Amino acid sequence: MHFIFLNRRRRQYNRLALLDADLSYSLKLTSLYLTVMLSAHVLAMMVFEKLSFWSASWLTLTTVTTVGYGDIAAVTFWGRLSTILILFVGSIFIVAKAAGDYFDYRARKREKMLKGDWSWNMNDYIAILNTPVSNGEEYLNRLIEQFRTSRDFSDTPIQMLTGSFPDGLPKSLRNHKDVTHYTGRADLVENLEAINILDAKIAIILSKREGDKASDGRTFDMIHRLRDLGFKGSILAECVDDTNRQRLISIGADIVIRPIRAYPEMIVRAFVAPGSEQIIENMFSSSGDEYLRFDIAVSNKSWSDIVCSVSRHNLGTAIGYIDIESCELHCNPPSSQLVNASSIFIIAREESIPTISSLKKVLQQVS
Predict the structure, then answer these.
(1) Is 284's pLDDT higher than 80?
(2) pLDDT higher than 60, residue 11
(3) 79 — phi, psi (to 5°)?
(4) Domain for residue 120, yes or no?
(5) Residues 6+ away with beta carbon under 8 Å from 69
(6) What is the band of 161 on the pLDDT scale with cuts at 50, 70, 90?
(7) In this structure, is residue 30 part of a structural domain?
(8) Domain coverage including residue 258
(9) Model's pTM, two decimal places?
(10) Are both 131 and 279 inside the same structural domain?
(11) Helix, strand counts (H, E) of the chain
C-alpha cells in the first residue's frame, strides 16, 4: 500500500509539474506575441497616422485594453485597417488569454507555496529537518518561539523540510514570521537541494521518535549527506543512544544533544552559548551532577557569602533559594541580596553529596 501511495503521489507531482511548465511556456509565448503585435501597431500608427512614438503607443495601449479614451484615433484607411487586423483581430483576445494564464499561474504558485512544493530563495536561514511524530506541531511551535525570543535569531528565516504537512502548515506555524516549509523526506538529496541547503547557516536534525535508537542511523546518514553536498554551516543532531554521540560528531555534527521534547530551549542555547546544552542535559540526568534541595532556615545572610562558603567547603554550588515569607523560588539572585530562606538549592557531584547537617553547620558560620 505504501508503494502504491508513493507512486500515486509521484504521478500527481509529475502532472502538476507539467501544468506549471505549460502555464509558464504559454505566458512566455503570449508575451512575445503581444510584444510583436503591439510594436507593429505602434509602427503602423507612426507611418500611416503620422503620430509621435508616445502618441502611437498611447493609442495602441488604450485600444488593446479596450479603454478607448478617444483623444487620439486612427483616421486614415490604412491606419484603421491596421488597427482592425493587428488589434481587434490579432491582439485583444490574446490579452484576455494572457491575463487568464497569469492569474492561473499566480494561483498555482500560491498553492505550491502553501503545500510546501516551492523552492524558496533564502540565505543564512535555519533549516529544521524532520518533525517529531508525537506532538510535532506543538514542539515546532515552541522551538520557533524560542528562536524568536533570542536576540541572535529573532529575525533569522526558518525553513522546515518535513513530510508531516503535505496539505500546508497548520495555522499556528504559519503565524510565525519568516517560517516556510518544503514537503518531502529530509534524508533525500533532491529535497535537500530543493531547499537550497547550502545557503542555510544552521541545520537541525530532529529524531522522529525520541525513544527509537534506530533513528540514530538515519541521523548519521543525513549528516553524511549534508557534508558530502558541501554544507559548511553548523549541524545540530539529536542522538537517542549516548553511545552514538562520538560517531555523529566524527561524521560532521557540531552539536549533539538528547531529544528532550519538553525543553526546546536547549537547541537554541546550544547555538547562543555552545556547551550550555551539556549543562542543561545534566539537569535531566541521574548521573554526574545532582540538583538537591535542603530545607534549612537561613536569616539575613548575603547570597555571595552563602555561595562562597558552600563552595569553599566543597559542598557544591548554591544556585537558588525559597523565600521564607513569599515561598517564591529565587534562582541565581544578585550577589548582594540578603537572603531569608526556608530552603537552599545546591548542585553537587554525586560522589560528594553533602549531608543536611554538614550544610547547616557551614551556613551557621556565615557572618
Answers:
(1) no
(2) no
(3) -65, -45
(4) no
(5) 62
(6) very high
(7) yes
(8) 125-283
(9) 0.67
(10) yes
(11) 13, 11
